[in-house]
Amino acid sequence: MRIVLGISLVIALAGCTAPPAFVVDASEEPTLIAAGSRPEVFTQAEVGGTLVNVDGCFGLENEFGRNVVIFPVGTTRSGSGLDLPTLGRVDLGDTLSGSGGYGSQGSPEALACAAVAGGEVAYLNPLD
Q1: Model pLDDT for residues 66-81, shown as the tens digit of each residue
Q2: What are the angstrom distances between the C-alpha of 32 and each of 12, 17, 74, 75, 113?
C-alpha cells in the first residue's frame, strides 16, 4: 500500500511541475506570449504595471522594473495592444493589474526577451 501511494504521489507531483504549453504570436512586434491552457494552480502575487514592449515582447513596466508577461489563455493581439478575456482591450501605455506570479520559466521567446531586459517572466492569472 505504501509503495503504491508513494508512486502515485511522485506521479502527481511530476504532473504539477511539467512546463505549460504556450501560444506565441510573433506575426509582428511585440511578440504576444499567452498560456496555451488554463492553469490548475494559481499564484497570488500582485502583477501589474503599464503595458510596454519589453525587448520585442509584450510586458509590464512598474516601479520595480520591466517584465515579459505570459498572458492568460485566450489573450489575442488587437491593433497595437491586446484583447484579454474578461478585461477587454488594453493598448500599449495602458495600465493593468491582477494576480499572478514571477519566475524564471516560460517559453523560449519569453526567456529570451527577459534575458535581454534583465527581468523575470511574469505570469498573469486568468481574470475571471
Answers
A1: 999 999 989 999 988 9
A2: 31, 23, 11, 8, 11
